[in-house]
Amino acid sequence: MMLKSLGWVVLLLFAGLAVLVLATLAWMTALGWAAGLLAMVWGSFLLAEWRRWLRLRDLAWAAGAGYGIGVIRWLEVPLDETSLVLRWLVMAGYALCLLCFVWIVPALLGGVVQRLRPPELPVEKPATPEQLRRWNPRD
Predict the structure, then answer these.
(1) For residue 2, what pLDDT band results from cuts at 50, 70 and 90?
(2) Which one is predicted more confidently, 34 or 127?
(3) How far apart are CA 74 and CA 23, in angstroms?
(4) Nearest 5°: CA angle at 51, between 17 and 55?
(5) 20 close to 70: Cβ distance less than 8 angstroms
(6) What is the pTM (predicted TM-score) of this model?
């Protein structure tokens, strides 16, 4: 992810927050809405990777992170008076869930796109003025 300016970072934070709110609403509504939102987030990431649109890829990555936090909120376990070990295990599960949505799934989706994308063909460089001066237009 390339951070270009403070405005771009703020936009990414707002995108993640918006998807967090949408994911929370989707989880409260039905599983189908949550799955549809996830398909939209990962589909936009795949499209951005395929077309090499870096800004959309960054926004989709932030949306995926927001969705991961929404999943953590949905999986929230009440830990009022439990043991310290259980609290650490639950926190490790939350971290693993966020790790999955922030690093693992985007890496897997990017790898799939890299395998499916046709290789780039080499492009011949345009002639320099020196080459044009040495060659006649008839060549």
Answers:
(1) low
(2) 34
(3) 9
(4) 35
(5) yes
(6) 0.78
The CB density around residue 57, as the number of other CB atoms within 10 Å, is 22
- 116 vs 49: CA distance, rounded Å: 11
Residue 93 sits at the vertex; the CA angle it makes with 91 and 96, to the nearest 5 degrees, is: 110
Q: Identity (one letter) of the amino acid at 54?
A: L
Q: Which has the higher per-residue pLDDT, 15 or 137?
A: 15
Nearest residue to 40 via CA among 32, 28, 30: 32
Residues in the chain: 139
Question: Do 63 and 56 meet the contact criterion of CB atoms below 8 Å apart?
Answer: no
Closest by alpha carbon to 38, among 14, 71, 74?
Answer: 71
Q: Give the mean model confidence (pLDDT) for residues 8-20.
A: 90
Residue found by looking up tokens 């966020």 in the block: 98
